[in-house]
């Protein structure tokens, strides 16, 4: 306990430690025979790979979740997804509030870092709201998905499948219980499942602070700059992604060509939303054309929005980068978004995140190109999927070498806790913050 209290004085290190501890406990439980359906011991590396993927809400798997793991193992994975999606500090804070405990300042600072929030002010209210929001979204999602799975799997399995996939979708995890590494490919034309999963992914990915603003909108009648940027960027990427997917795959006989027009459009929107960090698929990823894989990889690199359940460099980061480049070309030294000047410290942070992420992806790709025998395009796609905590794969994940698995584990972990978090820990000197305030926007 004294060790944990000392860690809380350094919130960034505390967050990393809690993620590592969660992975350690979850992975250890998955090793034991009672976690597998065959009642056999699981290879420790495979167990910890699964625990890392679940805690980092990624979805890359080396063992098929639906067939390899027992009910107990699946429950362990579900808890890891929920903890990874909500964050340890959010769950701890809500539990403390239920017990009537006062939340000390150190815990509030750790919670602020965990949620990538602006300040400590209002952080407890946000944590409470997050918990109830998650329950509502995941509850409604489970009910909706139950109506789909009930007809195919019966009541008991339908309930379990509804709960598991609702949590997995809202937390942008991408884990599924369908079996055979198929994800939702047999539900391509099911409108209920497609719309439910897409909505859960989007709301889980836009970030809890934005959801909080949506709840407060009837009283405030306006959104912050951050929320407006998130809304516009999210909608733009969804529409652009759907258009490109339809354009590249409509003539592909292995994906969209044989589908009715309604299913082509539905699948295009689903595959546009899911690579932004969720990892579900209604089209077999391994059969996609190379141009499609490349644009999906760029979407995975961008990822979700700050304060949400996804990874990547974040939507707001890419907006700040493009606006800065655009303003520089025009001869301006400022970054202006919607007639608001963005603090230079946030701009500098965005560039650090972008270039550090490029270095990480490049390093991981280099390692895998040495240790694995797959095409570079498949390796690159796998690395982007791990960094963006997405979970889409062309099918090479179970075939990775031990070094390859460890590399992907490190990439998933860094993608989830944040490249800036890792850099903060390994560097001894902190950058000074330059305050040129007009309005703030979260990045990373």
What's a concise summary of this model?
Helix content is 65%, strand content 1%. It is mainly alpha-helical and 444 residues long. The protein has one domain.
What keywords describe this structure?
19 helices, mainly alpha, 444 residues, 2 strands
Task: Tell me the domain tally.
Answer: 1
How many E-type strands?
2
Shape assignment: globular
Radius of gyration of CA atoms, rounded to a whole number: 21 Å
Written description of the protein model:
With 444 residues, this protein is an all-alpha fold. It has one domain. It has 19 helices and two strands. The chain has helices spanning 2-8, 11-31, 44-55, 65-68, 71-86, 88-98, 105-115, 123-153, 155-170, 191-205, 208-220, 225-249, 261-273, 290-302, 315-329, 344-371, 376-387, 402-417, 419-426, and strands spanning 336-337, 340-341. Strands 1-2 form a two-stranded antiparallel sheet. The model has no long low-confidence stretch (mean pLDDT 89).
Topology:
Blueprint lengths: L1 H7 L2 H21 L12 H12 L9 H4 L2 H16 L1 H11 L6 H11 L7 H31 L1 H16 L20 H15 L2 H13 L4 H25 L11 H13 L16 H13 L12 H15 L6 E2 L2 E2 L2 H28 L4 H12 L14 H16 L1 H8 L18
Antiparallel strand pairs: 1-2
């Amino acid at each position: 306990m004294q060790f944990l209290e000392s860690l809380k004085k350094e919130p960034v290190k505390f967050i990393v430690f809690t993620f590592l501890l969660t992975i350690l406990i979850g992975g250890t439980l998955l090793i034991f025979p009672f976690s597998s359906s065959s009642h056999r011991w699981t290879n420790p590396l495979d167990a910890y790979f699964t625990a890392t993927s679940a805690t980092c809400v990624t979805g890359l798997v080396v063992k098929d979740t639906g067939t390899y793991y027992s009910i107990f193992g699946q429950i362990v994975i579900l808890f890891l997804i929920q903890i990874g999606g909500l964050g340890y500090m959010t769950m701890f804070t809500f539990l403390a509030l239920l017990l009537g405990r006062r939340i000390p300042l150190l815990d509030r600072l750790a919670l602020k870092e965990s949620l990538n929030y602006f300040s400590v002010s209002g952080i407890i209210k946000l944590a409470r709201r997050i918990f109830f929001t998650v329950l509502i979204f995941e509850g409604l999602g489970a009910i909706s998905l139950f109506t789909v799975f009930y007809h195919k799997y019966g009541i008991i399995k339908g309930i379990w499948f509804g709960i598991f996939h609702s949590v997995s979708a809202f937390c942008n995890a991408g884990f599924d219980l369908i079996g055979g590494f198929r994800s939702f490919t047999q539900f391509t034309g099911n409108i209920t499942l497609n719309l439910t999963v897409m909505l859960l992914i989007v709301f889980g990915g836009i970030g809890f602070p934005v959801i909080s603003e949506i709840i407060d909108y009837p009283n405030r009648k306006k959104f912050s700059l951050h929320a407006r940027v998130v809304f516009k960027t999210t909608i733009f990427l969804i529409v652009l992604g759907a258009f490109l997917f339809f354009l590249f795959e409509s003539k592909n006989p292995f994906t969209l060509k044989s589908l009715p027009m309604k299913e082509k459009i539905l699948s295009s929107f689903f595959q546009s939303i899911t690579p932004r960090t969720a990892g579900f698929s209604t089209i077999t990823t391994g059969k996609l054309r190379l141009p499609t894989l490349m644009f999906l990889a760029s979407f995975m690199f961008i990822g979700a929005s700050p304060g949400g359940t996804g990874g990547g460099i974040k939507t707001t980061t890419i907006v700040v980068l493009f606006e800065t480049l655009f303003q520089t070309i025009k001869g301006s030294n400022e970054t202006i978004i919607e007639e608001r000047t963005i603090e230079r410290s946030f701009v500098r942070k965005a560039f650090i995140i972008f270039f550090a992420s490029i270095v990480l992806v490049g390093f991981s790709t280099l390692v895998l190109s040495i240790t694995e025998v797959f095409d570079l395009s498949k390796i690159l796609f796998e690395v982007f999927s791990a960094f963006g905590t997405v979970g889409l794969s062309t099918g090479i994940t179970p075939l990775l070498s031990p070094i390859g698995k460890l590399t992907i584990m490190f990439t998933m972990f860094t993608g989830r806790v944040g490249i800036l978090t890792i850099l903060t820990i390994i560097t001894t000197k902190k950058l000074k913050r330059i305050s040129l305030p007009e309005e703030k926007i979260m990045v990373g």
